[in-house]
């Protein structure tokens, strides 16, 4: 690396992004085989291009989340009979049935993705980030050595318990031999101000971790590293799309600003119906209107408790108490004039 920040909007696909070699990518089976304990208990679908992957205790989620095919009842029964599985979740396209959208799937699939095609504020922040930081691919050892401050700050901003350095070590140990996983960072001298980890599966990439140091936010390191990774995947590696995750199911996620950030960075917010299917023993506890009211009361007593917030949010959706789950997006859009 020359020590100079990369310049935005260049068509040159041979830009130096450091000495760390890129991950070659692989199939979803490669991803599951080489990612260690984080995906134990996964189930690869018959088509070989999707899988059911643990995303929290007792939960299986369909990957890629961009798959919106209906799931047959026989498959659901088999999954819910698996030891330790209490519920599954997957996305459906509201255009294909009587589904009320209850989440956004953030995806960028622009084959000509470039800074000049983005909103004015995004262009300003990306350029600021690229002037202030050196953005490049990083090794897992570099991430382990320098990445914890950004991880801890990000967890704190999201109301999570501060994670220990052991969590970061466990993650890097799991993925360091994976052909699918890759990490990029925004550096200021020896400080890793922000980092992003993602996986290359088949012809797409999915970003699953974005962390940054709060003190560095004025320099916009997140904007710089997200722009470079997105552009690299779409333009240089010609991947079909890059996924930036789903909107939150938390009872009070206050997620407008994150939503606005993703959209400004060129990601499309696709309305989706997120279906949760419960184990029969769990339905009375989460799937009724009374249960939803009880979970709401518990959450309000401890609003900083993330698990309670998630259970309350799930119960609202399952009980249909939330008649317009995405109203926050339209309301805040009007209030912010965006």
CATH architecture label of one domain: 3-Layer(aba) Sandwich
CATH superfamily of one domain: Gcn5-related N-acetyltransferase (GNAT)
Count of individual beta strands: 11
As for the CATH topology of one domain, it is: Aminopeptidase
* Major sheet strand order: 1-2-3-4-11-5-10-9-8-7-6
Unreliable residue stretches: 1-15
Question: Gap between N and C termini, in Å?
Answer: 38 Å
Whole-number radius of gyration? 20 Å
SSE run? HEEEHEEHEHHHEEEHEHEHHHH
What CATH first level of one domain would be assigned?
Answer: Alpha Beta
Classify the secondary structure makeup into a structural class. Answer: alpha+beta
Let me know the largest β-sheet.
11 strands, mixed
Average pLDDT for all residues: 86
Shape: globular
Per DSSP, what share of the residues sits in E-state strands of 2 or more residues? 15-25%
- Proportion of helical residues: 25-40%
Oligomer category? single chain
Number of helical segments with 4 or more residues: 12
């Amino acid at each position: 690396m020359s020590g100079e920040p990369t310049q935005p909007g260049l068509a040159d696909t041979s830009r130096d992004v450091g000495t760390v070699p890129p991950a070659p990518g692989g199939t979803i089976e490669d991803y599951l085989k080489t990612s260690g304990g984080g995906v134990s208990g996964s189930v690869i679908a018959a088509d070989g291009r999707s899988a059911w992957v643990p995303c929290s205790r007792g939960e299986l989620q369909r990957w890629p989340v961009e798959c919106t095919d209906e799931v047959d009842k026989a498959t659901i029964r088999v999954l819910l009979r698996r030891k330790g599985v209490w519920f599954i979740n997957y996305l459906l396209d509201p255009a294909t049935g009587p589904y009320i959208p209850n989440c956004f799937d953030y995806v960028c699939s622009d084959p000509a993705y470039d800074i000049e095609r983005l909103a004015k504020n995004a262009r300003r922040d990306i350029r600021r980030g690229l002037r202030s930081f050196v953005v490049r691919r990083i090794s897992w050892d570099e991430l382990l050595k320098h990445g914890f401050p950004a991880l801890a700050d990000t967890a704190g901003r999201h109301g999570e318990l501060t994670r220990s350095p052991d969590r970061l070590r466990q993650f890097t140990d799991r993925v360091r031999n994976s052909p699918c996983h890759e990490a990029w960072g925004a550096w200021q001298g020896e400080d890793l101000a922000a980092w992003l980890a993602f996986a290359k599966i088949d012809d797409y990439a999915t970003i699953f971790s974005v962390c940054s140091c709060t003190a560095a936010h004025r320099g916009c390191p997140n904007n710089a590293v997200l722009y470079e990774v997105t552009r690299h995947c779409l333009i240089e590696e010609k991947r079909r799309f890059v996924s930036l995750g789903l909107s939150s199911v938390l009872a009070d996620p206050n997620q407008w600003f994150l939503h606005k950030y993703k959209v400004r960075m060129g990601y499309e917010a696709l309305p989706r119906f997120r279906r949760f299917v419960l184990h029969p023993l769990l339905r009375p506890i989460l799937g009724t209107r009374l249960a939803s009211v009880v979970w709401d009361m518990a959450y309000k007593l401890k609003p900083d408790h993330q698990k309670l917030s998630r259970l309350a949010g799930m119960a609202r959706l399952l009980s249909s108490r939330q008649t317009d789950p995405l109203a926050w997006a339209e309301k805040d859009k009007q209030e912010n004039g965006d």
